[in-house]
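FAQ: What does the model actually see?

It sees only this:
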Amino acid sequence: MFGLENAQSLVGIALAIGICWVLSENRGRFPWKLALGAVLVQAALVLALFGLPALRAGLQGVGHAVDGLSASTQAGVTFVFGYLAGGEAQPYPMTNPGAMFVFAFRVLPVILVVCALAALLWHWRILKWITQGFGLLFEKTMGLRGPPALATAATVFMGQVEGPIFIRSYLPTLSRSELFMLIAVGMSCVSGSTMVAYATILKDVLPNAAAHVLTASIISAPAGVLLARILVPRDPAAEQAEALEPAMDKVYESSVDALIKGTSDGLAIVLNVGATLIVFVALVAMVNGVLGLLPPLGGAPLSVERGLGVIFAPLAWSLGIRWADAPTAGSLLGVKLVLTEFTAFIRMGAMPAGAIDERTRVIMTYALCGFANIASVGINVAGYSVLVPERRQEIMGMVWKAMMAGFLATCLTASVVGAMPSALFGH
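And it is asked to produce this:
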């Protein structure tokens, strides 16, 4: 049934689109058909994936696959690190089993394994066919040209900088709108390796976590395209037809070579994620230390998290979240923007079942599932400076706006999910 809480989520849809329209480079060229189509496509995908028994069973199968992948990864980690990784053969009495969940041993290794598997599936052409299929879908349904459509699809599975690599030779000739769209979509979604990591973090507090994370990343791509087109409208005169062919392909000599190179690529990602988390969490701790010197406010010390909770609480409410949970949800949105979505997912995963409403947890999973954060600004500038150095200055001028588009795209996705009947998700 469609109730008041579902209607509340419509505010979030209107707010995300309205903010982008207000900040648009050309308000008179609002893509009405794309706006209606993108939101309907998102709603239809959610209804199909969670409403149709066959697809719902498929999503549950994804959850089982993620559990199996995590268990297999843990076997490798335990072999290397022994009891430190939480193996059964503990040399000391275990008084707090929950303390054995160490991020470095339980989550980061999953990224390594998934990157290796992705390289292997690419070598076997399985992932390539899936990517090209999604690229054709974006081309036909959202009016994208071939190369940007392919890069958009690749971004969903490969990551915010890795996706555009497949059309590297096209990047210098893309229109401003297309280039902005690629950056925005990259911040709207997450990569395949991090999808599994997030599902691993949430599996104990969110039923069918893998299905929600996978769905979130896929359906946020149309939202990213829509908001990017609103902020920087397309210029048909500047766009010429291009062939749908990847200009640069990943080539592996053999399956073993794919596994080795995939592992090496995964190691770079793991080090980047780990180092980023250490630095950003440390910086926030420093700021909290300074704020702690000030007099308490409302009976509690001041902190970055409390401030972000106050700032983003109205936005969280507009997604369809009850007001009692809005400060907590707003804090998670702020943590995602400042400290990366990894930190936000870790904090939500640490919240016990009764800390926030189950509906809130589902909606926030979609709102957090994207790379739109301050760290990603640097990642995109560095990545695109290598891919298309002649447009570095142009990218510097649009990357912050792209981060906002990516942030609002996940909020738009969360609002669409919030507008769906709660019974669809089993609560």
